[in-house]
């Protein structure tokens, strides 16, 4: 009886099933599970296994130490807790051929990070190694209706993104078959930035367009109105006729989607990206999401951090350029409503709702008083 899709391992949804193992190339791997589910496939080579951890960007302190320890141990011995695993690649599998062409070797050497299994449209990220064992290319791939839709959406954004805009990776190549969609970008070394880092200004300021536009004309605002309906926060309702400078919008601008190397920021995972979004939302996401998902900070503490951010000189400079000065509170309310009613994020939703509720208790007319009440000197 043919296995159901839900019974397949993430890589089994992407690679063609071998007709006979004897006619397929055997790639020996080690599997790390997280919460009992496949999380990271690593090559058997100790050196490549250590490099495979570049795919994983933990945020919690204990997870960072675990990654560091696993990387250190992997260089010398076979780490305990990893399962031996073999993947069989058919010589006529188009996706395997695509990986071989990018890496320059057959069969391809790779590590694979399984995407969020709780989200619809799980995708996998492959890190390809060349013949000398150097990481060279990153491939994001997905199988199934929702996964291929998200891959196609991210690929379309990367194709349409303006050239020479900092932070946006360039599309190298793409792949599509009846079952799988994928695209490739360069490998970017580096680590995730701290959530309290104010360096986002370097990127977000460059993403702001100089020409002003009415918020009501932006597709992202129209989606919010449609998604939230009568539930839209009262503070956000006043935004429609306001004029701001639109900005490139990432949609999941969180530390774990960013690589920093020698001061250069590269932002990954653009499936929610759009060329004309609302300014400030990505900066809010950068601060709010780690506070909820990693630190489990209470809503009052997050509000205090927001007030402190809005009073900082770097933010004031950004707000003036983006023409959002005085709109911080309604834009924050609108951002939280977007997370709830449009993005419908699978993790941290209750924290977003609690923060939105607390924010709704503030009188927009007393915005300045709120800044003084919650902001830190």
Low-pLDDT residue spans: 1-5, 59-77
Figure out the total of helices. Answer: 13
Helix and strand pattern: EEHHEHEEEHEEHEHHEEEEHHHHHH
The helix/strand class is alpha+beta
Second rung of CATH, namely the architecture of the largest domain? 2-Layer Sandwich
Number of domains: 2
Structural notes for this entry:
The strands form 3 sheets. This protein has an 8-stranded antiparallel sheet with strand order 3-1-2-4-5-6-8-7, sandwiched between helices. Strands 9-10-13 form a 3-stranded antiparallel sheet. Strands 11-12 form a two-stranded antiparallel ribbon. Mean pLDDT is 86; it is low at 1-5 and 59-77. With 377 residues, the protein is of the alpha+beta class. It is 37% helix and 22% strand.
SSE diagram, text form:
Blueprint: E1 25-34, E2 37-43, H1 46-52, H2 61-74, E3 83-89, H3 94-103, E4 109-114, E5 124-129, E6 135-143, H4 145-160, E7 171-176, E8 180-186, H5 200-204, E9 208-214, H6 219-228, H7 234-237, E10 243-249, E11 258-261, E12 264-267, E13 274-277, H8 281-293, H9 299-311, H10 313-322, H11 328-343, H12 349-360, H13 367-374
Antiparallel strand pairs: 1-2, 1-3, 2-4, 4-5, 5-6, 6-8, 7-8, 9-10, 10-13, 11-12
Helix pairs in contact: 1-2, 6-11, 9-12, 9-13, 11-12
Supply the key terms.
3-stranded antiparallel β-sheet, 22% strand, 377 residues, 2 domains, alpha+beta, disordered N terminus, Phosphorylase Kinase, domain 1
Compact summary:
The chain is of the alpha+beta class. It contains 13 helices and 13 strands.
């Amino acid at each position: 009886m043919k296995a159901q899709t839900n019974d397949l391992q993430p890589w089994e949804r992407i690679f063609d099933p071998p007709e006979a193992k004897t006619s397929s190339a055997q790639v020996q791997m080690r599997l790390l599970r997280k919460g009992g589910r496949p999380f990271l496939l690593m090559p058997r080579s100790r050196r490549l296994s250590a490099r495979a951890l570049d795919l994983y960007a933990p945020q919690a302190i204990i997870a960072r130490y675990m990654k560091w320890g696993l990387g250190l141990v992997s260089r010398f011995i076979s780490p305990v807790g990893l399962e031996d695993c073999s993947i069989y690649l058919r010589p006529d599998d188009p996706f395997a051929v695509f990986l071989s062409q990018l890496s320059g070797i057959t069969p391809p050497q790779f590590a694979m990070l399984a995407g969020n299994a709780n989200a619809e449209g799980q995708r996998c990220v492959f890190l390809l190694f060349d013949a000398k064992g150097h990481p060279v290319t990153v491939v994001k791939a997905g199988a199934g209706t929702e996964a291929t839709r998200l891959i196609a959406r991210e690929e379309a954004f990367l194709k349409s993104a303006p050239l020479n805009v900092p932070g946006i990776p360039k599309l190298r190549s793409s792949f599509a078959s009846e079952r799988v969609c994928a695209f490739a970008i360069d490998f970017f070394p580096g680590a995730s930035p701290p959530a309290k880092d104010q360096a986002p200004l370097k990127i977000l300021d460059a993403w702001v367009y100089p020409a002003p536009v009415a918020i009501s004309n932006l597709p992202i605002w129209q989606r919010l109105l449609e998604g939230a309906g009568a539930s839209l926060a009262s503070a956000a309702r006043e935004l429609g006729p306001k004029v701001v400078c639109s900005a490139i919008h990432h949609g999941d601008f969180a530390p774990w989607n960013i690589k920093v190397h020698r001061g250069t920021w590269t932002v990954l995972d653009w499936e929610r990206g759009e060329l004309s979004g609302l300014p400030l939302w990505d900066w809010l996401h950068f601060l709010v999401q780690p506070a909820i998902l990693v630190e489990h900070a209470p809503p009052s503490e997050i509000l205090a951090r927001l007030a402190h951010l809005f009073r900082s000189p770097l933010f004031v400079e950004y707000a003036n350029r983006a023409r959002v000065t005085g709109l911080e509170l309604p834009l924050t309310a609108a951002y939280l409503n977007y997370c709830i009613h449009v993005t419908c994020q699978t993790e941290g939703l209750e924290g977003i709702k609690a923060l939105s509720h607390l924010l709704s208790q503030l009188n927009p007319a007393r915005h300045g008083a709120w800044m003084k009440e919650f902001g830190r000197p």
